[in-house]
Inverse folding.
């Protein structure tokens, strides 16, 4: 797939500088998609008791508390609503052996629930740790970018519920321009921010259709600074396979071929 | 309604917080290295079914290849090896298929694997490798059943012999090795850092394990098979030697990304279980029986052969479990993935 983003590609722009950590997106996502509860557990870390994305958590709000004891004025809270990145080159989609995971007409990565047989290979193939198997259901699940709502011309539940427009939904090309403008404005005000998910940084994964404006390094928000695309490891692995098979074949014929 | 299904416990204990405060990093300062050390990657759900599938699939494919090679050599002395190898391959193929289906989250949907052929997905390649292996191993077993006088007709005649040999060679070679590609082509650091070695290690391990199984079966088969057994011992030693070299190369090349496999409990399993008990000890046992002059009477050293074979098979099992379990440990370590470009 080329790096050119078609006009029909729909995605998310999540601006971390605007997030107030209300978790309306998490709740709206759970409600609209009828996702099961994750239980009532306190993490003890922060107000984030969800901890990470998973099979039943398709939006997750991270709470980053940076308390500087020497310079208290530099202390800050950052909240970030994480989601499936709907990658240009998606590891889960490439790994799926049933063809359950497809790219839909909005150029988003969608798991067809009636096809998935729960082989689980997409799970370690996702460079962002998004897709997971729901244990009591047996199938792999993740954000659909509200495919059902999009088909009816509605925006996804999380974006609809976001009170500060930290989450915005729309054609990726428009969102990209918006994000670039936002970074420019914030930098002019002296705030150090970066876009995560567009350009060279993503390597073989390509541009993300759900990208972010981050006020700190990606790993602070549990995003990998150098995501890998698993299929790029195949040439080396198949070479190793072919050489080893060749050597073993020669060795076994050499040993068994001659008379005792 | 409160759902009390078990979920992941917080990985950040009060002690961690205290240590983090003392260091001045972690979740409480501007030098934050990760998000409360929560894993970035998800780990596969694969359990004992896949561990046994990797293991038995390797042995079955190696057995099929040994039977084919021994058959090609055309010596009547190899006939027992051909027979044992063909039956072992068919039994292994059946068990592999069963295990693979059992592991699925939705086993009744196994046939969805056959909707498409997807060369880009090692899982899809593997399913077709297993299917074609099952078919060719069954044909070879049918041929053997005919030769043994059980079946009145030779089913294998359905395919011309050269085509049959090509099919069994290709499908068994792929079945025994694709699992190495399967784990290498993931986002898990300990696995992808071994992409140049894991498939070859699995090939070596499948070969040596199949040799060990066939040695044990020959030791239990009436009659003297000394010449065939010496050949199997030589091939097993060659494969085991290759496996040790490749494991060392993997360890050096992966650096800290290989820690989940080469250090700690799994590292000990690999060193003590696979390298010492599974490779070094059987090598010495086989060599010692090979050097003694009485070795031309097979049954004399039956106990030693069986012990060596059992240890080799144990070592192969421990290797597959260590590799698969190391992947889960690696997926839970966000720092390995964050720093994978510059492993220490």
């Amino acid at each position: 797939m080329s790096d050119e983003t078609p006009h029909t590609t729909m995605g998310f722009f999540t601006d971390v500088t605007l997030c107030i950590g209300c978790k309306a997106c998490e709740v709206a996502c759970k409600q609209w998609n009828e996702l099961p509860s994750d239980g009532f557990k306190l993490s003890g870390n922060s107000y984030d008791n969800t901890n990470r994305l998973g099979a039943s958590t398709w939006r997750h709000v991270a709470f980053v508390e940076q308390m500087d004891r020497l310079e208290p004025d530099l202390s800050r809270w950052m909240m970030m609503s994480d989601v499936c990145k709907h990658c240009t080159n998606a590891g889960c989609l490439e790994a799926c052996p049933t063809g359950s995971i497809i790219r839909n007409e909005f150029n988003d990565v969608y798991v067809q629930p009636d096809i998935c047989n729960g082989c689980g290979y997409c799970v370690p193939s996702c460079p962002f740790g998004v897709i997971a198997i729901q244990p009591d259901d047996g199938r792999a699940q993740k954000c659909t970018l509200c495919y059902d709502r999009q088909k009816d011309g509605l925006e996804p539940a999380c974006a609809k519920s976001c009170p500060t427009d930290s989450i915005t939904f729309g054609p990726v090309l428009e969102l990209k321009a918006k994000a670039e403008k936002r970074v420019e404005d914030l930098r002019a005000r002296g705030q150090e921010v970066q876009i995560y998910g567009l350009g060279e940084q993503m390597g073989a994964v390509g541009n993300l259709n759900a990208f972010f404006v981050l006020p700190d390094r990606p790993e602070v928000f549990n995003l990998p600074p150098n995501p890998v695309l698993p299929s790029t490891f195949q040439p080396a692995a198949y070479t190793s396979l072919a050489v080893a098979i060749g050597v073993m074949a020669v060795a076994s014929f050499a040993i068994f071929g001659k008379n005792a | 309604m409160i759902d009390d299904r078990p979920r992941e416990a917080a990985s950040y204990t009060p002690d961690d917080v205290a240590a983090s405060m003392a260091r001045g990093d972690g979740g409480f300062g501007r030098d934050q290295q990760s998000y409360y050390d929560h894993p970035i990657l998800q780990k596969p759900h694969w359990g004992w079914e896949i561990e046994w599938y990797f293991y038995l699939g390797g042995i079955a494919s190696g057995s099929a290849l040994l039977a084919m090679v021994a058959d090609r050599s055309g010596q009547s002395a190899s006939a027992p090896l051909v027979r044992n190898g063909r039956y072992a391959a068919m039994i292994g193929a059946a068990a592999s298929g069963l295990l693979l289906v059992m592991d699925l989250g939705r086993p009744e949907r196994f046939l969805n694997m056959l909707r498409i052929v997807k060369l880009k997905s090692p899982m899809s390649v593997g399913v077709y490798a297993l299917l074609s292996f099952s078919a060719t191993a069954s044909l070879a077993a049918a041929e053997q059943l005919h030769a043994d006088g059980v079946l009145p007709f030779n089913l294998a005649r359905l395919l011309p012999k050269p085509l049959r040999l090509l099919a069994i060679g290709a499908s068994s070679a792929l079945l025994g090795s694709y699992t190495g590609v399967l784990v290498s082509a993931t986002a898990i650091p300990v696995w992808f850092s071994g992409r140049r070695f894991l498939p070859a290690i699995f090939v070596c391990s499948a070969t040596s394990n199949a040799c060990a199984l066939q040695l044990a079966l020959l030791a239990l088969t009436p009659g003297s098979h000394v010449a065939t057994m010496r050949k199997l011992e030589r091939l097993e030693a060659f494969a085991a030697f290759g496996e040790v070299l490749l494991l060392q190369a993997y360890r050096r090349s992966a650096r800290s990304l290989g820690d989940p496999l080469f250090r700690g409990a799994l590292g000990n399993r690999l060193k003590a279980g696979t390298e010492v008990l599974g490779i070094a000890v059987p090598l010495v046992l086989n060599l010692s029986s090979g050097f003694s002059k009485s070795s031309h009477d097979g049954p004399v050293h039956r106990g030693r052969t069986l012990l060596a074979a059992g240890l080799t098979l144990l070592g192969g099992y421990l290797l597959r479990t260590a590799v698969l379990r190391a992947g889960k440990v690696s997926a839970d370590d966000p720092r390995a993935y964050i720093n994978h470009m510059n492993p220490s």
